[in-house]
Amino acid sequence: MGVSLTEASRVGVLAELVEVGFGYPGRPPLLQGLNLRVGESERIALIGPNGAGKSTLLHLIVGLLRPTAGQVRVLGRDCRSEADFRAVRGRLGLVFQHSDDQLFCPTVLDDVAFGPLNLGRTPEQAAAIAERTLAVLGLRGYGPRVTHRLSGGEKRLVALATVLAMEPQLLLLDEPTSGLDAVSAARLLDHLAGLPQAMLIVSHEQPVLERLTSRAVLLEQGQLQPVELHRHAHAHRHTHLHLHASGVTTDHDHLSELPVHAHPHADRQDDD
Length: 272
Hints:
globular, transport, ATPase-coupled transmembrane transporter activity, ATP binding, ABC_transporter-like_ATP-bd
């Protein structure tokens, strides 16, 4: 069933969606014929309007949802059943958009140690991994704290810690700086920027795109359109990072003063 995990690592493709379709019961199809490939060391921004299916796409990759058409491949393995996803899920790290969906243990240490325990670490090893992970995120001493009493920003960082503690090869980040103040967001981005993992990041926030991503794809009308990341000065007050569909020239005006723009044009290209 697909190639081995060792072979997948050699070819450098961590996750791939091939002609994927998906729809929620009683609703029109959300994704149709969608293709995406995430390679080793890639950091991809996934952008699109609310309701386009960005979170759904992340959930398909980790097997929380199953496509109605097409294939999901993780580390070269065709993943169709829960057993297939269970074999590779430890190599993936999904940080949910809402931290309360991710945190369910009584204490912070219990939450962060949960993943390493399920990967076969001893309780002592898991606790040590959890403490180290919390420390690098600026949460030293948080282990005994009651999770549901944390602030929104603190929960966000703990949710990330639960994922990083498992040392995944691919991070799937759904609005990673949501709910964080400027100082906490900057600290989080500094840490993420120094990690070796590939990343697929749902965000529209300029600091996230500037620090973490090397290419971007726009999800609209059920499919992905590649867009280019570049910086240029024009009719805005400041020079900003911009997203443009492939082939768009940089010499033009914008009517908006939003710091990040996605411009769909007719010259669509298939996603690799």
